[in-house]
């Protein structure tokens, strides 16, 4: 059943006929059961949502079936909208027979994809085949026999954008594997290249790069996130200060090749205000007014751009004892260092 907020959103956005189905887990389970006739759906849980008003909505699900767990996503589009995506894989090997539910999916302009057949992350399919996975890992981390017989455990997955997994070797050796879409890989590769020679303990070290597979590998480090550490009763108030000191080091690092500061740094503020207005119309005027005020302030600021993390918050800091390490430089670029502090505060609210 749709929540009141989702029901109101569906009523406003009539351009996406499948929106109600994707936001209603029970309704989606019914449609999915019609598509996967060779399996019995036991439970469906939405794990990730990405919504573009009037255009499309993508929802990733964890699905429990009588034959095991599945990770898949569905994308509802405005009818008639052209897409460059490959056709969804609905073969029995990938997702079960789709004959029963294909008419319903087509009528609602919904495309269904299992994780291994994400059209924007083609290398993901190789993790489903032992031989192909071995070739991928050898190309990514050549000359490292510890990972030849490794298996990969999923950590995080954002459909059509990024997959993060833990590579575990036969004797317990570990590494982080990241697979990207084409656009995301270009940005992540710039960050990896710019800081690969930093030679400092406050950054995770890249140990493999593959343009062919749009993949990066990083050393696996022990510890927990700063967010998790701050939720324990024994956490030290010095940890945030150490994280701030590491961030300050990043801001002063000479990093060639990073993306330049955008011509209009206020554009994300305006886009965020419009997103808020689409989701909560009653907050639209306030959000737009705030965005305009902040844009005016930014126009008057005179800050020399420096390297910034670009997506800094407590989960991007790894804590082990008294040491802190900054993670995920996929969005690094030149900009106002205050943006990193603002991101940290915003995520902490």
Number of strands: 14
* Beta-strand percentage range: 15-25%
- Gyration radius over CA: 22 Å
Specify the number of helices. 12
Poorly predicted sequence stretches spanning 5 or more consecutive residues: 89-101
Q: Which CATH architecture of the largest domain?
A: Alpha-Beta Complex
How would you sum up this structure, described in words?
This protein folds into three domains: 114 residues, no CATH class; 98 residues, Phosphorylase Kinase, domain 1; 125 residues, Alpha-Beta Complex (Aminoglycoside 3'-phosphotransferase, Chain: A, domain 2), CATH 3.90.1200.10. It is globular. The strands form four sheets. It has a five-stranded antiparallel beta sheet. Helix content is 35%, strand content 24%. The protein has 349 residues and is of the alpha+beta class. About 4% of the residues have low confidence. This is Aminoglycoside phosphotransferase domain-containing protein.
Topology:
Layout: H1 4-12, H2 19-23, H3 25-35, E1 41-52, E2 56-65, E3 68-77, H4 92-95, H5 102-107, E4 110-114, H6 130-140, E5 151-158, E6 162-168, E7 174-180, H7 182-195, E8 206-210, E9 215-219, E10 224-225, H8 226-230, H9 238-252, H10 267-279, H11 284-300, E11 306-308, E12 317-320, E13 323-326, E14 333-335, H12 338-348
Antiparallel strand pairs: 1-2, 2-3, 3-4, 5-6, 6-7, 7-9, 8-9, 10-12, 11-14, 12-13
